[in-house]
Amino acid sequence: xxxRVRPPARPLAGAVxxxxxxSIGHRALILAALGDGRARVSGxxxxxxxxxxxxxxxxxxxxxxxxxxxxxxxxxxxxxxLTAPAQPIDCGNSGTSMRLLAGLLAGQPxxxxxxxxxxxxxxxxxxxxxxxxxxxxxxxxxxxxRPGEIYPPLCVAGRRPLLGIDYASPIASxxxxxxxxxxxxxxxxxxxxxxxxxxxDHTERMLRALGVPVSVPAPGEVVLDPTGFSRRLPARDxxxxxxxSSAAFLLVAGxxxxxxxxxxxxxxxxxxRTGVLDALRAMGADLRTSSVREEGGEPVGDVTARASALxxxxxxxxxxxxxxxxxxxxxxxxxxxxxxxxxRDAVELRVKExxxxxxxxxxxxxxxxxxxxxxxxxxxxxPARLAGGVTLKSGGDHRIAMACAVAGxxxxxxxxxADVDNVATSFPGFESSLAALGxxxxxx
Length: 444
Ligand code: S3P
What we know:
Elements: E1 2-6, E2 13-17, H1 22-33, E3 35-36, E4 38-42, H2 48-59, E5 63-66, E6 72-75, E7 89-90, H3 95-106, E8 111-115, H4 126-134, E9 138-142, E10 151-157, E11 165-168, H5 174-184, E12 191-194, H6 202-209, E13 214-218, E14 221-224, E15 233-234, E16 238-239, H7 244-256, E17 261-268, H8 275-282, E18 286-295, E19 298-306, E20 314-315, H9 317-322, H10 327-335, E21 339-343, H11 356-366, E22 371-374, E23 377-382, E24 391-393, H12 398-408, E25 415-418, H13 430-436, E26 440-443
Parallel strand pairs: 2-17, 3-15, 4-16, 7-8, 11-12, 20-21, 24-25
Antiparallel strand pairs: 1-25, 1-26, 4-6, 5-6, 8-10, 9-10, 12-14, 13-14, 17-19, 18-19, 21-23, 22-23
Bound molecules: shikimate-3-phosphate (S3P).
Shikimate-3-phosphate is lined by residues 23, 96, 173-175, 178, 199-200, 324-325, 348.
């Protein structure tokens, strides 16, 4: 499938919601599966990535049933109740499913295999296999592009109890941290993870809400002490907030199309995720949050974007970590901003669903934007008048596809974006949401 996007005749206007937060969805599903009884997870996004986690848990013996359009009822099997899957578990395109499940499976008294699609088979897994092996699990993966790296499929021979670990991760990664914390539920001694910068902290918040002793002695450091853990997780319901990473595409559309005002309601505003709002505000964006409240231990609110004249900024350090998933759409905003925007400390973009640094630079070039790759980021010169009449490529990457679609709203003539099926991994209905705001976008 592809998108055909035309610059809208009128400003974008309206208030919409977005599908539930993908990161929180994975965690709610896993923790509900380990609970002592029935729990309801509401507000799930319906994306394919969360569905991969649902299918994996089902294969591990958990009964999961639909309970309305965006809710599932999970019959938790308890801390020790998972059973060996009959077949390899297919994580599809979902790196979060694979890495979180690797941590969970490391502590199970059986062996299992985690596999994925072509893109996932090319993503590095040594980051989780290394520390999980040090905790006593045996994990074998496949060789691949980079010597010494480990790629899926991963064969995980679990061990219970696992050993404790004090792990200084070379990368700020919530997937690595969360894998180790989930493994920590099955460890005999504390699991401590130190990161170069604090990554998203949903797992810590949710484990604490379940009474698991998790502490944060310093920013970028987390400890789970299993000696104070009862080995029981209560069954509790979770309400998943809207995904700010998805909302970001609609908000940037509202900032770029002249005269627009776009509100996204009920989105997660966890400070480890709001780097995109901070970066846009630093670019001069008129972004306002309202109705901020707490739901399920996470801050949630409405965000309104009003069309703004943007200027360049620099993203580096912890801000890059807090905005990493939104850099494709920030790059589109930067192309329309005056001056040269610089993104650094974002080398992880090279091992996402695509090499996002190279893919963004290539697609911006097709639009006539001058952008350059850096080893750990990129530079974008603005303001550019985006060329129309071109076909952009997503590289099979949902966030590139959606960023390109937003660029089409401010191009000089209609553009096409090829290969957009992958948008369904995180934001099913993206084109309808954009169209509801007045955009002219067609999926064909
Ligand atoms: C995620 C963590 C981040 C993020 C991904 C979701 C998570 O990945 O990019 O989209 O849910 O833990 P890394 O842990 O690889 O940084």
